[in-house]
Amino acid sequence: MSPLPGILKGLATTARTAMRPTHTAEYPDVAPDLPPRSRGVIALLEENCTSCMLCARECPDWCIYIDSHKETVPATTEGGRDRQRNVLDRFAIDFSLCMYCGICIEVCPFDALFWSPQFEYSEVDIRDLIHEKDRIGQWIATVPPPPALDERAAEPGEIAAATKPARGAGLVGGAGAAAEAGAAGPGARMPRTVRPRPAGTGTRPPTPREPLPGTPESVPDDPPPAAGPPADGETR
Amino acid sequence: MSLLEVAVRSASVLAAFLVLPLLVGQTEHKVMAHMQGRLGPMYAGGFHGWAQLVADGVKFVQKEDITPRAADRWVFRLAPAVALIPYLVALATIPLHPGVAAIDVPGSLVLALAATSVGALGTLMAGWASANKYALLGGLRAAAQLVSYELPIVLAAASIALAGGSLSVATLTDRWSPWWMVWQLPGAIVFIVAACAELQRPPFDMPVADAELVMGAWTEYTGLRFAFFLLAEYAGIVVMSLLVAVLWLGGWHGPFEDTLGWLWTLLKGFAVAVVIIWVRVAWPRLREDQLQRLAWVWLVPLALGQLLLTGAGVVMGW
Q1: CATH number, residue A96
Q2: Which residues of chain B does A15 touch, with a Cβ-Cβ cutoff of 8 Å?
Q3: Is residue A219 in a domain?
Q4: Is residue A135 a part of any domain in this protein?
């Protein structure tokens, strides 16, 4: 009777499961154990918002509504200039449209939007799912601190930016930058974006023993005195 | 027997008939849930959902009672009663305690088995009268199943009757000895398996296979009439479990049987009911041909062999 072992195995499996604790999450009575970075609702830190509209423009389904006006801030110093700043009148997210992609949070350059794990804001009327800025602002209290990074994860962008060498290092100098290297002194490293250009740039400064290209026998034994360090030239 | 005694006996059987199936049903809810890693009902009544089936009953009462236009009205409406009441009769024949049975007749074993067979007729009536192809198919499958499994049940019970030399359940339980649990074991297994099939419980629920027949013969039923079919199923579990308890497991035999005999009977019956629930959870549904094959190739020969063994034992005077 070949099915007999399988039949007994079925009985044993169900009996063993009955003896173990159940997996049921008794949700309304017991709060669920949400994973880190859960996307429940979008919270607004109003102080950081500049009404730049980036979030509203990047939102794939256009569910963010922003109204603002400009106010003039009088100059604080004598003879100074009056400043203008944006004042947020309305910031609303229609959560009946929101698809929880998080692009608004990613795109916000001023860290005004955050994910909160709160998810219990269902409504009977769909129109009540449009959260105005006071309601979105309340969620900010529920935003958790960012979870610790995983083991061997890439380091956070801010730390990476602060510790890595300045961009353009090693590109300074060489034959093309001989003049500026001469101006800043040998070995000076500065970002390419703030490279000072002395007058007469655009053409290479004339050197007395400038060889003609294509004549290897006329290569000088020693480089021009104003040239950068040889190491910089090698990394080109 | 005075009229008052008749009334008291009837009322107590009715009370048992209304309470015990609910107890088994609630046990099924909870045991099945835990066997599947769930909790089962937790809210109705407050403590672990004890009142879930009461709440279900209230829900069924509130539903509309629909009779399809094409249905055979009287048969359709009568079918739940035909399915339910025979189990009430069968329950009345089962002795709980020495000398305590609602109906104590000399042939109570025959009466109980005959009554449970009639109960299955209700499914057939429902299937025929519903004017629904799924119901008809379910009813025909039920009929085929009953024809096959009635035989092993009767043969297994006959073996016990032969061993005890009586057709009265009370007398059989009185003459029971622990030795019966060994040499009547094949008969007990045959009876439990065939009882599951008779009740159309998983893994023998081909007549109500919901994936292919919606709900079999019960497809067109709603409300209280549907609830009666469900109640009949659980009353059937109670009757069959108690029959196994009194015939094969010795009923009231146990410590302090003069005072606690009824408790032993109920506990043994409950244990058998849990096994029937367990089987339901653990095993998948049998295909129609496998179902017939199990009855005719395994259960009938096994029951006949048991009958032969019992007959030999009785003649040899074991």
Answers
A1: 3.30.70.3270
A2: 35, 278
A3: no
A4: yes
Structural domain span for residue A93 = 30-142
Please state whether the peptide bond connecting residue A117 to the residue before it is cis, i.e. omega within 30 degrees of 0: no
Domains contained in chain A, number: 1
Give the number of beta-carbon pairs within 8 Å between A and B. Answer: 35
Backbone angles phi, psi at B99, to 5 degrees: 80, 5
Q: Quick check: is A178 in a domain?
A: no
B29-40 burial by CB neighbour count: b if 16+ within 10 A, else e? Answer: bbbbbbbeeebb
Residue-level pLDDT at A172: 52
Check CB contact under 8 Å for A11 and B42. Answer: no
Mind listing the pLDDT tens digit for each residue in A55-105?
999 999 999 999 999 999 888 888 888 888 889 999 999 999 999 999 999
Q: Running along chain B, 318 residues long, what does each successive block of 10 average in pLDDT?
A: 86 90 92 89 86 90 88 89 90 84 84 87 88 89 88 91 86 84 88 89 84 85 89 91 89 82 88 91 86 90 91 83
A103: in domain: yes
Contacts of B247 (CB under 8 A, 6+ apart): B109, B157, B160, B169, B172, B173, B176, B191
When divided into structural domains, chain B yields a total of 1
Residues of B in contact with A10 (CB under 8 A): 282-283
For the whole model, what pTM was predicted?
0.71
Nearest-by-Cβ selection for A14 from B38, B39, B278: B278
